[in-house]
Amino acid sequence: MVEIHQREPFSYRHDPSVPRFDDGGPIAFVDGECGLCSRGARIIVRLDKRGEFRICPTQSSLGQAILTHYGLDPTDPDSWLYLVDGKAYGSIDGITRVGARLGGLGRILAVLRILPRALQNWIYRRIARNRYRLFGRKRVCDLPDPALRRRLIE
Question: Three-state secondary structure along the chain?
Answer without folding.
Answer: CCCCCCCCCCHHHHCCCCCCCCCCCCEEEECCCEHHHHHHHHHHHHHCCCCCCEEEECCCHHHHHHHHHCCCCCCCCCCCEEEECCEEEEHHHHHHHHHHHHCHHHHHHHHHHHCCHHHHHHHHHHHHHCHHHHHCECCHHHCCCHHHHHHECC
